[in-house]
Amino acid sequence: MLLRKVTQSPAICSSVFRLQPAITGVQRQTGALVAVRNARFYASQAAEAVLDKNVVGSDATTTAEKIDKMAIVESKSFAVNMFKGQISTSQVFPFPSVLNEEQSQFLKELVGPCSKFFEEVNDPMKNDALEKVEEHTMEGLKEMGAFGLQVPADLGGVGLTNTQYARLVEIVGMHDLGVGITLGAHQSIGFKGILLFGNPQQKEKYLPKLATGEHIAAFCLTEPASGSDAASIKTNAVHSPCGKYYTLNGSKIWISNGGIAEIFTVFAKTPMKDEKTGEMKDKITAFIVERSFGGVTHGPPEKKMGIKASNTAEVYFENVRVPAECVLGEVGGGFKVAMNILNNGRFGMAAALSGTMKGVISKAVDHAANRTQFGNKIHNYGAIQEKMARMAMLQYVTESMAYMVSGNMDSGATEFQIEAAISKIFASEAAWLVTDECIQIMGGMGFMKDAGVERVLRDLRIFRIFEGTNDILRLFVALNGFQNAGNQLKSLQKALKNPFGNAGMLTSEITKRAKRKAGLGTGLTLQGMVHPELNHSGELTVKAIEQFGAVIEELLLKHGKRIIDEQFVLKRVADCAIDLYAMVVVLSRASRSLSQAHPSAQHEKMLCETWVTEAHERVMQDIKFLRSGTSKQIFKNLRAISAAVVENGGVVSPHPLGF
Ligand SMILES: Cc1cc2nc3c(=O)[nH]c(=O)nc-3n(C[C@H](O)[C@H](O)[C@H](O)COP(=O)(O)OP(=O)(O)OC[C@H]3O[C@@H](n4cnc5c(N)ncnc54)[C@H](O)[C@@H]3O)c2cc1C
What we know:
Helix content is 59%, strand content 10%. The chain has helices at residues 2-7, 10-17, 20-28, 36-51, 60-72, 78-82, 101-120, 124-130, 135-144, 162-175, 177-190, 192-197, 200-212, 334-370, 382-410, 417-442, 444-447, 454-460, 470-497, 503-517, 535-559, 567-595, 601-627, 629-648; strands at residues 217-220, 236-239, 245-256, 263-273, 280-290, 296-298, 312-323, 327-328, 372-373, 376-377. The longest helix is centred in the middle third of the chain and has 37 residues, at 334-370. It starts with a helix and ends in an 11-residue tail after the last helix. By secondary structure, it is α+β, with helices and mostly antiparallel strands. Flavin-adenine dinucleotide (FAD) binds at residues 36, 185, 219-222, 227-228, 254-256, 304, 307, 312, 462, 465-467, 469, 471-472, 567.
C-alpha cells in the first residue's frame, strides 16, 4: 500500500511515463549471451573479422565508404571501446544523474517505508528457518506494491525507472536475500519478458495481477541437461494443425518461485521451417504459460545451501495447451527474449548486493569498534584496518557500477551488455569477499547463527552461479570485446588495401601502435573528464587501457579464430576488463563528488585512488603475463594437471605417509 499509495499522484505517474523511450530502447537491444554456444558464435565472428579477407571490395571508393560507415555506427559503450584501446566517455562521464526532481522526490518517499518494513516487519532468520517467506511478510510486500515495481502505474504497478528500482532492491538486498530472490525471480526475470516483449493485450491481461502479487511469476529456462548451454533445451512446443495453440511438454529444474507461481515464462523448442532451405529446424520460442491451463505441476521445494526462504522447484509441463496468443515476442525468437531478460536484470543484482555489503560492513564496524583484544579495540590494528578499507572499496565500486549501468539504461543506452555482465560478476564476488571478511573480523561471533552473517554468506553463494555463471560471463565479456576489436582490425585491414585513399587513418593507427610499443602515450586522455585532483588516477587508467587495447590486438593476431578456445587467456582478459571498468566508474563517481564538494569527497578520492592504483598494477601484471612465455608454460601445466586429476578420478600424488 505504501509504495502504491504514493504512485497514485498523477504528476508522478506522468513523470514515470516520460521514461518509456528508455524501455523501448532496451527492447531493441539484441541478445547478450549466457551459453557458450553463443560465446562461440561471438568468438567466431570476432575471429572472422580478423581473418576474413574476402569481404574487402576491390574498388577504392567502396572500401573508404565502408570504413566511413563503420565509423558512423561506432559504439558509445565504454567497455566495447576499451577493447580497441579507445576511450568513449559519453556513457561514463559525468557519473549519470538521471532522476529529475520529481522522480528523486518520489523515490525518497519510497525509501523510508521500504526500509522500515524490512527493519520492523520482515524477519530474515525466521524466513531462513521456515524455508519460506512468512505469510504476513508476503502480504505486506504485496500491499506495498513491491511485486510490481517497474510495472507502469496504469497497469497497477509503481512504474519505477531502472535507477529507482535499483535503490529499492538495494534495501531488500541489505536485509534479506531470500526475499530478494522471491521478488527478483518474479519481476526481474519472471515477468520481465512481458514488460520487454509483451504486446499490449498480453501486458493488459497479465501485468495488473502480477503487479499486485496476486499472481506470482517464474522464469523457466534451465533443464537437467541444459544449464549454461541454454540453447540446448529439450522442452518442446508443437504448433497444433489448427494453429490455435501449442502443446508444451518437458520439465525445468531449479526454478525460483516454481512451486508458488501462477504465471511462467517458459522457453521451449518449436519446430520451424527454414525459409531458405525448406528444412524443419528447432528454434527456441518464449511462452507465457498459466498454471490454470492444466498440465502444469511442480516438485517439492529444493533443500538448499542458502536463499532458503525463496522457493526453488522443478516444474513439469505435460501436454499443456498453450494458446498461440501466449507466444512472447517472435516465434523462434525465444533465445533473444531470454538473453535480453537476463541482460536487463543484471544491474539489479549489483544494486541488491551493494546493499548486502553495506549491511555486513555495518556489522563488522560495530564489532571492530567495540571488541577489545590485547588492550585495544581491534579496529586499531592494521590487519583489521586493511580488511575494513578493502570492504569499503569493494562496496563503493559495486554501487558505482550498479548506478552507472542503471543510469545508462535509463538514458536509453542500447549497448550495455558487457557492462551489465561485469557488474554481475563484480558484485557477486565482491559481496562474497566482503561478507567472508566480516565474519573474519567478528571472529567466532561471526560464525554464530545469531550474528546473522553466516546466513548472508550462504545466501550469497548462488549469485556467482545463477543468471549466467561468472565463468561463462567472463567468456562473454572477453569474447564480446574481442568481436568488437576484431571488427576494428578488419576495417584497418580494409584500409591497408587502399593505403593512399586512407593515408590519414593509417598514419594515425601506425603511430598509435608504435607509441604503444615504445610505452609512450598515444594521445588518449581523461583530463577534463576527471576532477583535476584525480588526474594521476586518470593517467593510470588511460595507460592501462592503451596497453589493454594493444594486447587484445596481439592476441587476436596470434590466435585468430582459435581465441575462442583459449579460455586461460580469455579469463585473464575478462579480469582486466572488469578492473578497467571498475577504475573508470569510481573515477567518474569520485570526480562528481569532488566537483560538487560533497562532504565525503576526500574520502571517495582515497577510495578511488587506492582502487585505481592497485587495479592498474593488476591489469599491467596480467598483460605482462599474457605476453610472456611463462603464461604459455603455466597454461600447459594447468591443462596437464587437470587432465591427470580427471583421469585419476581425484588427486594424483600419493599420501606423504605412503598410505
Ligand atoms: C537456487 C537456484 C535458483 C535458480 N533459479 C533459476 C530460475 O529461476 N530459472 C532458471 O531457468 N534457472 C534457475 N537456476 C538455474 C541456474 O541458472 C543454473 O544453475 C546456471 O545457469 C548454471 O547451470 P548449471 O547449474 O547446469 O551448471 P553447468 O552449466 O553444468 O556448469 C557447471 C560448471 O561448468 C562451467 N561451464 C559450463 N560450460 C562451460 C564452458 N563451455 N566453458 C567453461 N566453463 C563451463 C560453469 O561455469 C560451471 O562452473 C537456478 C539455480 C539455483 C541453484
